[in-house]
Design brief:
This protein is about 50% helix and about 20% strand. The chain contains 15 helices and 11 strands.
């Protein structure tokens, strides 16, 4: 009898230990590394999710990594150093090529501008003929330049386009080494701040919204999504919750971004109007009514017109509509 009681007691202890271990294991945080760009668009959702504990609520331990451009993020992602990333317009060409998949958009940009130096006697787009224009090829600045020139019957062959990164664009314009630049906020703000009435904005993306649609997006690799479906869902929930918080608390979002990037609050605040910022409801509605597919189709046409992409690709090949459908129980 005593032996039976002992054995039963031992089994109960083993079961208790097993249950405790299982609970301990399930409570462990999954560690991921998330890439962001150091502007309001590229920082805000990730910074808010970190600051407000939305990642922790989803059992995620997140390290945020700052990058200067989307292609560098994608390269790091393909090497396994990054699991998730925010990208602006330019890097979406890599998604179209199948290197990464789009989870969902962050917003639609309205910040791209072509800024000309008055010293170069440029007052309108047609005056760019024969002038030196700085931009970063493959980015939204490059695309706006291409569209603007085409609308007045010019091409890049009619101007001297100098390819440079964003820091070079700003310094070259301030140093008057180029006649004009095509770039986006916050770099446009810095140029205007430094040169004041020596420059003028001759056009912006808002003049081409019938043709130029520049969504920014959250991405991961196809392999990572396939092998880590639960983490992808949890990451998506945290970012979407942060996007809702951003919409309801824009001034606080500015402060959170300024703190993470070490930039002046006033400068970050100026970026609030540089995009249409999405909420989780906006995402759900856009995926339900087909708007999101149209955004990415329009974006792809821009890449094709610019000869960055040679052949059209079905957007469902790289935009993961299925993930959002499951997340929101669409259909």
């Amino acid at each position: 009898m005593k032996r039976t009681i002992y054995v039963v007691g031992l089994l109960v202890c083993i079961m208790f230990i097993s249950i405790s271990c299982g609970e301990s294991k399930s409570s462990e945080l999954d560690s991921i590394k998330v890439a962001y760009l150091a502007d309001f668009a590229g920082t805000s959702a990730a910074a808010i999710a970190q600051e407000k504990g939305f990642f922790k609520e989803e059992n995620l331990e997140v390290e945020l990594a700052k990058f200067l451009n989307g292609p560098a993020e994608v390269a790091a992602m393909l090497s396994g150093n990054i699991q998730f990333a925010y990208i602006g317009h330019g890097a979406h060409s890599l998604a179209i090529q199948g290197k990464v998949n789009i989870l969902f958009p962050n917003g639609l940009s309205k910040s791209e501008q072509i800024i000309a130096g008055k010293w170069a006697k440029i007052n309108k787009i047609s005056d760019l003929r024969g002038k030196t224009v700085g931009t970063q090829l493959g980015t939204s600045g490059d695309i706006v330049l291409d569209i603007a020139l085409r609308r007045v019957g010019l091409t890049k062959n009619n101007v001297n386009v100098v390819n440079m990164d964003v820091s070079g664009i700003v310094s070259s314009m301030i140093g008057k080494k180029v006649d004009a630049v095509s770039v986006w906020a916050p770099y446009t703000f810095e140029i205007v701040k430094q040169l004041n009435d020596e420059v003028q904005i001759i056009t912006s993306i808002t003049n081409y919204l019938d043709e130029a649609v520049f969504p920014s997006s959250w991405i991961a690799t196809p392999d990572y999504i396939k092998n880590n479906a639960d983490i992808v869902d949890r990451f998506s929930r945290a970012i979407l919750k942060a996007m809702d918080y951003r919409d309801a608390n824009m001034d606080e979002a500015v402060e959170i971004v300024a703190k993470l990037n070490g930039t002046p609050t006033d400068s970050v605040s100026a970026e609030k109007e540089t995009a249409i910022w999405f909420t989780s409801d906006d995402i759900k509605n856009a995926y339900t009514d087909g708007s999101a597919a149209k955004w990415y189709e329009a974006q792809q046409r821009i890449f094709i017109n610019s000869e960055i992409i040679q052949e059209p690709v079905n957007v469902s090949n790289y935009v993961r509509f299925d993930l959002i459908d499951n997340l929101f129980n669409i259909n």
